[in-house]
Amino acid sequence: MKNFDDTMVVSHFLRGGSILSVMFIILGIIILFVKREGDGFTLQQIASYSYSLTHGIDSKNFPTSDIIQGVFRLDGIYFVALGLWLLIFTSISVVVVRLVWFAANKDKKFVIITLVVLFNLFFAMLIVPSLL
Amino acid sequence: MLNYIEIIIRFFSIMLAGIFSGFLGSLTGLGGGTILVPVLTLFYGIPIIFATGASLISTIATSDGSASAYTKEKIANVNLSISLEMATTGGAIAGSFVAIYMYAHSLSWIVYVIFGTVLLFSLYPAVKKLHSEIPKKTKPDWSTKFFKLSGSYFDERLKQTINYEGSRWYLGEIIMFFAGFFSGLLGIGSGALKVLGMDWALNLPMKVTTTTSNFMIGITAATSSTIYWYAGFIQPLIAAATAIGVLIGAYYGSKVLVRISNENIRLIFFSVLIFLGLDMIFSGFDKINLVLVDTVFQFSFAAVVAIITILILFFHEKITPTGGKISEKL
Questions:
Q1: Beta bridge pairs of residue A37
Q2: Apex CA A82: angle with CA A76 and CA A84, to 5°?
Q3: Dist CA B19 CA B33 (whole Å)
Q4: B100 to A30, A54, B103, B153, B299: CA distances (angstroms)
Q5: Which DSSP letter does residue B84 get?
Q6: Model confidence at B120: pLDDT above 50
Q7: CB B119 within 8 A of CB B187
Q8: Which ipTM score applies to this complex?
Q9: Which of A:113-132 have CB within 8 Å of B?
């Protein structure tokens, strides 16, 4: 594991992740414009800032648990949502790769430091929703 | 309601704002988000909640995209970034909660004012030549060894390997908490504050601070983004348009950056940022009717101040012997 080049792995993860997520976002926008609707809203409603603000066309109403179903329904909004989450997970994956690398090198101190960072990330992702 | 053609035009015009912000953010070293939020709120009338949400997503996109190149060059200090991320992610959570509180209590004007102020202060490390590219050697302390703050990299321009030893980790950690806090509150990457923290507190070479900062921005923004997602601050159409736009802009910005030889050109870009910063402060006070002049006057006043500041900086650069290297470090 000493020869495991973590910076190259991280570099590939970042590049691959950002390309994949942008592809999903672009695909979602194309679907949205072709179908002229998404998640029950018309394209006009989605494009209006004030309507979005008052009628909740925002991330709060696109729960992560619905994303996969939405993608299978070929719903453009959920393709965009998947792309945006992939972007977030790309950043998180870097921390996970680092954790594996520190663990493989038996660097206990940095394993703990990385776990604190991961805890913060998962606190924001899993615990915060229940507080809002 | 908008017709189909108008919606397409709206989408591409937001994307254009993203390209402009990504381009300018890349040239000034501040990142796309810092420019995107004022542009979207002041010129597109997009609610600041959605503007900051879109900005965070764009920040991750550019950070992920450019960090992949930086890690290949092995300049970024990975150990350092992880230990500082403890503070930035914690700060991001705190900042996001404060943002939610402010929007829920109709205090968005404070966000405008803080945004403008942070934008103006971000220019300080960018404009001022803090010190030479390689910092003076300082005495390593207990944190140097404990947090592995030392390292080396090969400097292409100086054609030599640079060894460095950072110190005062605890001071860096405090600044990083605030960098994370402002990232969560304002939906930006807080790159300028991160660079300042590593440069001033930890005494690291500029190349190491900028690349490491870029690396950390993605993880900080990812933390705030998840909270913004659940709070409903991300509007899919706006976030999609800006993420694509900022990525394109940042890509071309980094290409142009290496070709710009006259550093004075960057002064023009800084003037745009001064203009946006002042306008954000005005808009904030305008929301609570503290500004008694109309928008046209506010814009004109901000423009005049920006031009005067840049002219002063321009002539100052001309008469100082070290002039003309404003943001070489960025």
A1: A42
A2: 105
A3: 11
A4: 32, 17, 5, 41, 29
A5: H
A6: yes
A7: no
A8: 0.93
A9: 113-114, 116-117, 120-121, 123-125, 128-129, 132
Look at residue B206 and tell me if it is in a domain: yes
Run of H or E including B122 = helix B108-127
Q: pLDDT digit string (tens) for A9-53?
A: 777 888 888 889 999 999 999 999 999 998 889 999 999 988 888
Closest approach of B147 to chain A, Cα-based (Å): 8
Q: What is the pLDDT of residue A11?
A: 79
| Nearest-10 Cα torsion for A114, A118, A120, A126 | -170
Supply the DSSP symbol for B90: H
Q: How far is B254 from chain A (nearest CA, A)?
A: 16
Q: Where are the alpha helices (DSSP H) in B128-199?
A: 142-146, 169-186, 191-196
Give the integer Cα–Cα distance in Å for B234 and B225: 9
Interhelix angle for B206-231 vs B78-104, to 10°?
A: 40
Closest CA to B280 of B260, B306, B253, B261: B306
In the structure, what pLDDT confidence band is assigned to residue B10 with cuts at 50, 70 and 90?
very high
Contact (CB<8Å) A52/B50: yes
The single-letter code of the amino acid at B116 is: G
**CA angle A14–A19–A24, rounded 5-degree value:** 125
Cα–Cα distance measured from residue A42 to residue A35, given in angstroms and rounded to the nearest whole number:
9
Strands A41-42 and A37-38: antiparallel
Owning domain of residue B100: 11-319
Task: Count how many domains chain B has.
Answer: 1
Question: Cβ–Cβ contacts within 10 Å for residue B139, how many?
Answer: 7
Option in A25, A91, A123 nearest B243 (CB): A25
B302 CB-side CA count, 13 A? 24
Does some domain include residue B324?
no
Is B158 domain-assigned?
A: yes
Domain membership flag for residue B328: no
pLDDT for residue B317 is more than 90: no
Strands (E), B96-249: 150-155, 160-165
Cβ neighbours for B200, distance < 8 A, ≥ 6 positions apart: B130, B175
